[in-house]
Design brief:
522 residues, rod-shaped, five-stranded mixed sheet, 15 strands, alpha+beta, 3 domains, Heat Shock Protein 90
């Protein structure tokens, strides 16, 4: 596969091509302009020299320094070469030739040192081709290469009243030398500009692309980090100086940094999720292994040949109890799995005031059943409700919200000693003039939770029995995790508040005011 050209090389080539094109255009325009200007100067001198040559060949005297002919030309014999070539006013290199009826009569050219030279036959033929034709008495100046030692000349022809045709020519060696020199200068300057442009473009692009190369180095360093397992830390980032260098590099660098932040966050969350899952599987396995071991042990005892019927029935009851415990644990695990999947929750209108009142009455009844053997129908705990008189409307799933309240009340009932007061309060959190949320507080004045347990109270399989009463038996350690998952799925929060005992505060968004007003009016 062909390796693509680098951006630096492409920019350098484009810059050098542009400079070369500009140099060529400027050079051509400059050379042509100078050539046309100098050619115009030569033509002006040639027209004057041709007029004087026609006067001399026609036998007319020249007045005023050769600028104006006499009004009436007398008849003149054939002029001599000395009269025609090297006449006063002619510059070095001036060529003059007289033709009559297309036949060369006399002519030549004068050198720098004043020497008169004859024309060759080929030069006479070239000059004869420039004679006026038809009724024209003059021709426009043209360039003719006379060859030999003369080279290119600017040629013009004039006719005289005596019937002779006079061809006058001026050399173009000065024009050629000037334009050639200018062409050489333009070429050298153009080449120098191209070299400087290439060097400047290469240097500028090298400096401009240096931040981009560092961005590519950062990306390459990230690709070398193993991302498939374990805790991953992506320390590589594009430097802020590189981001601020140019807008293009800044966009790429900022986008790469954002992507790395997202990737690192996702990897951190993945590692935390995997760690939680590993811990969750280990804890669940531990929780299920204990009842399974109990079931197996009692099943083996019941299968002995000498087992009595009463013992077998007792073992069956124990096995049934462990099965119920395992069923409850599995139900809670399935509930957590459902909440983790973030399903579409039911958004019914729920009066939290009625729901909490029913849950407190159920908890008081369960507390009475637990103490019936020792104190008749009296409860072990003191239950205080402060629910207000107005409905506290929220939107959500009534069964899930009831499970949250039951878990909070169950914790207070099972893990605090007799005589503990459990206070349940329901109030509104207002934002300005509108009701923004409903707050449920469940607090007891029991022994509370130690600091180590307070930090992990909402984690799965976390228990707080180490410092609280176990009279009601141990739980699975999933109640508070379920409560937190349900509350967060409803858009609320649950926190462990301060206090001498255990205080849990649940905050849920309230239903819209129009729904509450409709309920009150109904």
């Amino acid at each position: 596969m062909r390796r693509p050209r680098s951006l630096r090389l492409q920019v350098v080539l484009i810059a050098s091509a542009l400079v070369a094109a500009v140099s060529v255009v400027v050079g051509v325009v400059a050379v042509l302009s100078l050539h046309d200007y100098m050619l115009g100067q030569v033509d002006a001198r040639l027209n004057g020299a041709a007029a004087r040559g026609a006067d001399i060949a026609g036998g007319r005297p020249v007045q005023n320094g050769g600028t104006a002919p006499a009004p009436t030309p007398p008849p003149s014999p054939r002029p001599s070469r000395d009269e025609v070539v090297g006449a006063p006013g002619q510059s070095a290199g001036t060529l003059t030739a007289v033709f009559r009826d297309g036949t060369f009569e006399v002519g030549g050219w004068i050198s720098v040192n004043g020497t008169r030279h004859d024309l060759t036959a080929a030069q006479k033929t070239l000059l004869a081709a420039q004679l006026p034709t038809g009724s024209a008495d003059r021709t426009a100046p043209v360039t003719v290469d006379l060859g030999g030692s003369l080279g290119p000349y600017r040629v013009a022809a004039r006719s005289t009243p005596s019937g002779a045709d006079v061809v006058t020519a001026l050399p173009l060696d000065l024009v050629s030398a000037a334009t050639g020199r200018l062409l050489l200068v333009v070429t050298l300057v153009g080449l120098a500009c191209i070299v400087l442009a290439v060097a400047a473009a290469a240097l500028a692009m090298g400096r401009a692309l240096r931040p981009l190369r560092r961005v590519a180095h950062t990306a390459a360093a990230v690709t070398a980090v193993p991302l498939d397992r374990g805790e991953v830390r992506l320390a590589e980032r594009v430097d802020a100086h590189d981001i601020a260098s140019t807008s293009e590099v800044g966009q790429v660098g900022a986008a790469l940094n954002d992507m790395l932040d997202h990737v690192e966050l996702a990897l951190t969350q993945r590692e935390a999720s995997e760690s939680t899952m590993r811990r969750f599987v280990a804890d669940a396995s531990h929780e299920l292994r204990t009842p399974l071991a109990t079931i197996r042990a009692y099943a083996q005892l019941s299968g002995r040949p000498d087992a009595e019927e009463a013992e077998v029935r007792g073992n069956a009851a124990l096995i049934d109890g462990e099965g119920v415990r395992m069923g409850a644990l599995i139900d809670q695990l399935l509930l957590l799995a459902r909440l983790d999947a973030l399903p579409e929750l039911v958004r019914d209108e729920v009066d939290l005031r009625l729901l909490v009142a029913e849950a407190v009455l159920a908890a008081r009844l369960a507390d009475s059943d637990a103490s019936a053997s020792s104190a008749g129908s009296a409860t072990r705990h003191t239950w205080v409700m402060e629910l207000g008189e107005d409905p506290a409307l929220v939107r959500g799933d009534a069964a899930d919200l009831r499970r949250v309240v039951d878990n909070l009340l169950g914790n207070a009932r099972l893990h605090t000693p007799a005589g503990t007061t459990v206070r349940v309060r329901l109030d509104e959190v207002r934002t300005g003039q509108a009701t923004g949320a409903v707050r449920l507080t469940v607090a007891d004045d029991g022994p509370g939770l130690p600091d180590a347990v307070r930090e992990t109270v909402f984690e799965r399989f976390a228990r707080g029995e180490a410092s609280r009463s176990r009279d009601g038996g141990g739980g699975t350690g999933l109640g508070m995790a379920i409560a937190q998952a349900v509350v967060e799925a409803h858009g609320g929060t649950i926190v462990l508040g301060p206090g001498p005992g255990a205080t849990f505060v649940v905050t849920l968004p309230s239903a819209p005011e129009d729904a509450a007003r409709t309920t009150l009016e109904g």
